[in-house]
Amino acid sequence: MRVLKFGGTSVGSVENMIQVKEIVNDQQKKIVVLSAMSGTTNALVAISNDIKEGNKSSAVTRIDTLEVSYTTTIQSLFSDAVILQDVQAYVKDIFFTLKSTIDQVYHPSTYNTIVSYGELLSTYIFSAYLRQEGINVQLLPALDFMRIDRNHEPDTFYIRQNIHRRMDELPAADIYITQGFICLDVDGKVSNLQRGGSDYTATIIGAAIHAEEVQIWTDIDGFHNNDPRFVEKTTPISNLSFDEAAELAYFGAKILHPQTVTPVRELDIPVRLKNTMKPNAHGTLITNNVHGEGIKAIAAKDGITAIKIKSGRMLLAHGFLKKIFEIFERYETSIDMITTSEIAVSLTIDDATHLDPIVEELERFSFVEVDQQQAIVCLVGHSIIYHHQTHKLFQILQDVAIRMISYGGSHNNISLLIHSDHKIETLQRLHTYLFDAVTV
Ligand code: ASP
Ligand code: MG
Question: What global pTM score does this model have?
Answer without folding.
Answer: 0.90
